[in-house]
Amino acid sequence: MKRLKVFGSLIKDSLDTITHGSKKYHLWMAFLTFVMLAGMYCYSIQLEHGLSVTGMTDRVSWGLYISNFTFLVGVAAAAVMLVMPTYVLKDIDFKQAVLIGEGLAVAALIMCLAFVIADMGGPSVLWHMIPGIGVFNFPNSMLTWDVLVLNGYLFLNITIPFYILFRHYQGKESKPNVYIPGAILSVFWAVAIHLVTAFLYQGLQARPFWNNALLGPRFLASAFAAGPALIILVLAIIRNFTEFKVKDKTIKKIAMVVTVAAQINLIMLISELFKEFYAPTHHSESAYYLFFGLDGKDALLPWIWTAIPLNVLATVLLTFHKLRNNFKVLFFCCFILFIAIWIEKGFGLIVPGFIPGPYGKIAEYTPTGIEIGVTLGIWALGAFVFTILAKTAIGIELGKLRYKK
């Protein structure tokens, strides 16, 4: 009963915290609410008319929704780069950032699930994914593995920070023997969620663009570059607009993680390009379409030729120690690297896998306004969830939120 009373007090105090703030905070939340409402309106149109209102067809059946899903799985997995040093290796420099990283992972996973629901057409078909009721097809289907690892990772990223914050809310220290086993499990689970997502594509032999042994490791490398890059940007905003002051040393250590991952990701990209273009076969047509166009079709050229230079520029700048320690340069590099990997793992990966089709026909894909609206709404939902989680967590960590006996 006492724990329920404390939990009720925490909920009450959290609601009070997230409904009060500065003018900038209220404007930010109002903006996110507006974008979410616009996304809901677009989604209502999709529910009424079906997926015909999107740019997807029977030729290109995965588009903007699955592109964002694939990218966000990596963002969620990146929390492990803070969890392992903090909880397992006892690196105190990461301690300030780990709860923020796990909050981002929760928001990213919620967005992942939302994008899957949007891509399925509507929530009414979700019963197909419920074991024992629908056709779950476990363990043969890689999709069912993906459902399990995503929901399991979401559970871990909710329960571990909640336990720590719940203890701190009561003015008590969290017990390592309670959360360390879950933290260690989450390290392996984080790798699993992105590898399983990569295996979804790798296992499709009819799509040679994805049927690549390097896809899984490259997914991890790009995730450990884009995810921590986003964490750095979020930490920069938090320390500028809140009393939660993140040390420079913490940001610099995360920047090193971003740099190494970006370098590995770039090396793997060069390896893939060599494989596709040094001795091209008919299986290289998807790559040719992506980078140079085929038969006058070149819808993805502006996307990929924006992503690659941004990727290279960010990686080169981050490689130099003096430039990386200049926070203005660091924040710029993190921003363009995040955008580059979003393009590369989105449009640059998903759409070309369908082009050309099995009979050589090229059917290009362009997202519609409805798709873009739903996508922006889901991103706003993620930002809204993260803002709520971060504001509560920061209040507890600063000692402003405490249980009053």
UniProtKB/TrEMBL annotation:
InterPro entries: DsrP-like (IPR054823), NrfD-like (IPR005614). Keywords: Cell membrane, Membrane, Transmembrane, Transmembrane helix. The keyword Cell membrane applies. It is a multi-pass membrane protein. NCBIfam families: DsrP. The keyword DNA-binding does not apply. One of its GO terms (cellular component) is plasma membrane. Pfam families: NrfD. The chain crosses the membrane at residues 27-46, 66-85, 97-118, 147-166, 178-201, 221-242, 254-274, 300-320, 329-355, 375-396. This is Polysulfide reductase. It comes from the Bacteria. Belongs to the NrfD family. It is found in: Cell membrane.
